[in-house]
Design goal:
By secondary structure, the chain is of the alpha/beta class. Helix content is 40%, strand content 24%. The longest helix is centred in the N-terminal third of the chain and has 26 residues, at 63-88. The radius of gyration is 20 Å and the shape is globular. The model has no long low-confidence stretch (mean pLDDT 94). InterPro entries: Anhydro_N_Ac-Mur_kinase, ATPase_NBD.
């Protein structure tokens, strides 16, 4: 993996909302000190039922069962990459895979992503960069969020980059220093409630739109200790399950009212994060939640004239994280910093990610 003028990379992202595997074939080029990108092809593959159920139960599995799931997922990733390449007739330099997070408890020095990079490399016959979080956690960081360096170098025309994924997170520049953190649960909890109505997600926010905010529950959610902690800070499934899902399960209310209250909670926390910056701004919104028209409407209403909410084309909305993990792989292959301590709280910046090359040179 030598330094080149142009990199052709497949970025892989599997998020906490379990929507599927995002694959983005991207070209990256450095011109006059500025990185440029193009997403040339992209698609999402839904998980087979067995894999979906395994990932959903991941935190409860035994060590042996989790190891088997790691192998199974790595094989499925590798086969998905191979068919993606064949279908689009792609010339690829390497694959950069985030994997799928099972455990993320950085305060205990723990972060675990599965989807074995060695197996992806063996099946795709391509070099693979993976395991992007472990080094940062070992250096005392949160291991998250990792996307902000991509926000800074690829989307610098925006003041804020907001990702509405399983967890809502934000990144922004503050006096020349990149800051970022997880704001609150987003699609992870919205999809949980949608599943009670037999839906994978709340399409367009239709369920929430029909509900009424429950003030008592909204207050309980807004008063969670996490929201008063200083950043850098990050969230994982365990925290969401113990602190949000457990609480909303105690309320005997309709899915419509529950969904509406959660949307209001998410809006409150996003508004708090952005208005606290004290400047007018352009806000880039990506991630699956960008398609939730009711959520976007509530964010716009909450921010009023303080921010221009920018939802880009569908490809960028859906594949920005896969794009940026491809870019993190490029920076790793160049031996350049791809993880910022100003964002994660680590003792220093780092060039993180393990490289597996199935070929001898």
């Amino acid at each position: 993996m030598k330094n080149k003028e142009k990199y052709k990379v497949i970025g892989l992202m599997s998020g906490t909302s379990l929507d599927g595997l995002d694959m983005a074939y991207c070209e990256f080029e450095l011109q006059a000190g500025v990185w440029h990108y193009k997403i040339k092809a992209a698609e999402t593959r839904g998980y087979p039922e067995e894999l979906y159920n395994g990932l959903q139960a991941g935190v409860k599995l035994s060590g042996y069962e989790l190891t088997r799931l790691d192998v199974h997922l790595g094989r499925w990733f590798g086969e998905a990459v191979a068919s993606f390449i064949d279908n689009h007739r792609l010339a690829v330099d390497f694959v950069a895979s985030h994997g799928h997070t099972i455990f993320h408890q950085p305060e205990l020095g723990i972060t675990k992503q599965i989807g074995n990079g060695n197996i992806i490399a063996a099946i795709s016959q391509l070099p693979v960069v993976s395991d992007f979080r472990t080094l940062d956690v070992a250096l005392g960081g949160q291991g998250a969020p990792l996307v902000p360096i991509g926000d800074a170098l690829l989307f610098h025309e925006y003041d804020f980059c907001l990702n509405l994924g399983g967890i809502a997170n934000i990144s922004f520049d503050n006096q020349g220093k990149r800051l970022a953190y997880d704001i609150c649960p987003c699609n992870m909890v919205l999809n949980y409630v949608a599943s009670k109505e037999g839906c994978s997600y709340d399409e367009g926010g239709a369920i929430a739109r029909e509900g009424t905010v429950i003030p008592e529950l909204l207050t309980v959610l807004n008063n969670l200790d996490f929201y008063n902690q200083p950043y850098p800070k990050s969230l994982g499934y365990e925290w969401v399950k113990d602190n949000v899902i457990s609480k909303i399960s105690n309320y005997d209310i309709s899915s419509f009212d529950l969904m509406r209250t959660l949307v209001e909670h998410i809006t409150n926390q996003i508004s708090r994060a952005i208005t606290g910056a004290g400047k007018s701004q352009r806000l880039l919104v990506t991630g699956g939640g960008a398609f939730n028209k009711f959520l976007i409407q509530r964010i716009e209403q909450s921010l009023k004239s303080e921010a221009e909410v920018c939802v880009p084309d569908d490809t960028t909305v859906n594949y920005k994280e896969a794009l940026i993990f491809g870019f993190l792989g490029v920076l790793r292959s160049c031996g350049e910093v791809n993880t910022l301590s100003s964002v994660t709280g680590a003792s220093r910046d780092s060039c993180t990610g393990g490289i597996v090359n199935p070929f001898l040179h």
